[in-house]
């Protein structure tokens, strides 16, 4: 009987495949970064973010008055302590992103005005103005992301505005549902689940960040006029939320420095902070859309599109402006 020792020699072909796989992933990552940067430059992301910030700040005052007016209707039916707790929470969270002067001079008087008594006229008029300007800002997102995917004109201006209006109304409905829950929520949780209030407080910001990623991923998914995978938009949503969180912290520090100095920007710190923060939010969303388009171009299988569709992504030089209403 012949016996022997079997030696397991390394397979040079398998080793080379692993090397090529790692190198290929690095090259793909480099291409994604390159396409993202070039897309931001080609489609004027910085300029479009300024346009979004303009329409957003135009819609923000009537929207705040409308939502707060709706809360004022509910606040008239709940205990005063609950309303005071809601006001304190809003001011506390706003102070994390906006300077204390802006909170005390702008947000606090507004809340005191609309929470003191029901304001039905504010609700109706505020929402009418907010619907137009807010949906116009949303249309910039939809148009730009559509053009990034090389599908300009596929929806048409009417369908684009209908989609933008619908998405914005969905956000308004979500806000109208969430704010009353915030008014009654702390007291309700304290009565029903008094032992877990501390745990819920610790989980607040992780839940907010996770919900922001999911909502933003859904927005980017709806803005794309081709059928693709919803999960393919999560990378851009995660990057957008990271830009928003880091940028908000840096922006707040800069505004605090400006407001405390003797420069001409001191008295204008509050409106500058609000406009800059809205610009940061718009910029983050558009960068997230550019990243998702770059991923779809480099890895169409992950995005759930065909190679033929991927060839058109980030290729057209159409003007992102388009017709406006």
Kindly describe this structure.
- Residues 4-19 have low confidence and may be disordered.
- Helices cover 77% and strands 0% of the residues.
- By secondary structure, it is an all-alpha fold.
- The chain has helices at residues 12-42, 45-75, 80-94, 100-116, 120-148, 157-192, 197-202, 204-223, 234-259, 269-298, 300-303, 307-312.
- The protein has one domain.
- The longest helix is centred in the middle third of the chain and has 36 residues, at 157-192.
- It contains twelve helices and no strands.
Number of helices: 12
Distance between the termini: 89 Å
How many strands, what sense, and barrel or not for the largest sheet?
A: none
Contiguous runs where pLDDT drops below 50 for at least 5 residues:
4-19
User: What's the total count of β strands?
Assistant: 0
Derived structural class:
mainly alpha
Q: How are helices and strands ordered from N to C?
A: HHHHHHHHHHHH
What is the averaged pLDDT score?
A: 74
Can you tell me the number of structural domains?
1
Task: Give the proportion of residues in helices.
Answer: over 70%
Amount of beta strand: under 5%
* Rg for CA atoms: 24 Å
Global outline: globular
